[in-house]
Structure formats: structure tokens, C-alpha cells
Amino acid sequence: MTTAIAIKKPRMIDLAFTRRAIIERIIEQGGEITDADDAELRATDASIEDKAAGYLAVMRHIEAEQGKANDEANAATGYARSCGRAVECLRERLAGCMVLAGVSKIKAANHTISTQAGKASVVIDDENIVPLGLYATMQTVTRIVTHKDVIKSDVEQAVTEARDAGVAAGLPDDEIEAQCQKAAATTVPGARVVTGKTGIRITAPRAPKAAQIENQGEIENGQQ
């Protein structure tokens, strides 16, 4: 029984050094190319071309795998975003229904669901007309509003005063609301305060304190 001996093919880097050595030898010979040099050079060039073809095939395969992986990643990212939007939509729908029903807390599936009032935040519509003292000049042409807490406080105070004045004057609710909106929009030029939608908070049940102590005792006994 004969055993086949695998012939190790030269690497691309080996072929590159071989070709360089041939060229340098030809230069040392004054540019004269012998038949042996010509044959070795042609054989080396053919081997380099074969290696290059192999490199190209591998690169195309890897690029195809990369494209497939990118497609899968994009699909996964899109699916994750869709899931996030679906959950947010359900949260908003549940919050809206709880507000409509006049319910602030629900116990379901061993969890507590509570409504949370939307948070007020400052929106800068035009930083160029925000009053001095409410922004910091970062560059000669860039202004960054940094005192949003002051803006929020001033606007909320103006809205409260407008509401109190409307109630004191006995105005209808729709007129009082209109005055409050006007105060919110005009108190600080270039800025306004908006209140987010009512959300929900889902709280998991807590284990009874006695059970927590018992579990801790079991853990400590297990470590001894």
C-alpha cells in the first residue's frame, strides 16, 4: 500500500520573494535573461496568477457571507424596532384607556399597573430670540441654551398665574385653557413647555419580608 505524499504549495508571500529574487538576479546579470530565468519567471508568474484567483474566490465568498450577515442584522434590527413600537403602542393604548375609565391603578397578572402623568419639557423653537442670560455662547455663531430649568419654571409660573386669574374672573374652562396655552407660548420668546402623554408604570410584586429573610438564611446556610 502506497501513501500519497501531499505536496505543500508555496504561499503567495513565498512566490513574491521568489519573483523578486529572479528580477534582482536578472539585473545583476546586466539585464540578460537566460532560458532558465525565463522559464522560472513564467512559472512563478503563473503560480502567482493561480494564487490571486484563489484569493479572489475566497474574498468573494467572504463578501457574500458579509452581505448575508448584514441583511440578517438589518432584518433583526428592523424586527427589534417593530417590537419596540408595538410595545409602546400597547402602553399608550392601555394608558389612554385607564385615563378614559378614570382608573389610576390596576392589579393584573401579579403586577401593578399605574398611570403616570406626562413630564413637562422645554422645547426651543428659535434659540436666536431666547432672552439673554438663558444661553451660553460657545462660539461666535453658536449659542447653546443651558438654563432650561429656569425657562420651565418661568413658564409654569406664568401658566399657573393665568389659570388662577381665569378662575378668579369666572371664565369658562375653554377660555382659561386658551389663556394658559398663550402664557406657555409667549412667556419666554423662542421657547415653550410641552407636556408628554400620560404613561404607565408596571411594577412587579415584592416578596414578603419574611420570605426574603428565610431565603437569605437558606443562602447563608448553603455557603457554610
Task: Give a summary of the structure in a few sentences.
Helix content is 60%, strand content 14%.
Give a description of the structure.
The structure is a single chain. 60% of the residues lie in helices and 14% in strands. With 224 residues, the protein is of the alpha+beta class. It has 2 domains: 10-103; 105-203, no CATH class.
Keywords:
three-stranded antiparallel β-sheet, 7 strands, 60% helix, 224 residues, two-stranded antiparallel ribbon, alpha+beta
CA-based gyration radius:
38 Å
Mean pLDDT across all residues, rounded? 82
Strand content: 5-15%
Let me know the largest β-sheet. Answer: 3 strands, antiparallel
Q: Kindly give the count of domains.
A: 2
How many strands?
A: 7
Which range best describes the helical content: under 10%, 10-25%, 25-40%, 40-55%, 55-70% or over 70%?
55-70%
Order of helices and strands: HHEEEEEHHEEH
What is the count of DSSP helices, taking H or I runs of 4+ residues? 5
Q: Distance between the terminal alpha carbons, to the nearest Å?
A: 65 Å
Poorly predicted parts = 138-143
Which structural category do the helix and sheet elements fall into?
A: alpha+beta
Q: Looking at the structure, what is the overall shape?
A: elongated
Widest β-sheet, arrangement of strands: 1-2-7
Write the layout of secondary structure elements.
Blueprint: H1 12-28, H2 35-101, E1 105-108, E2 111-116, E3 120-124, E4 135-137, E5 143-145, H3 148-168, H4 173-186, E6 191-195, E7 199-203, H5 209-223
Antiparallel strand pairs: 1-2, 2-7, 3-6, 4-5
Helix pairs in contact: 1-2, 3-4
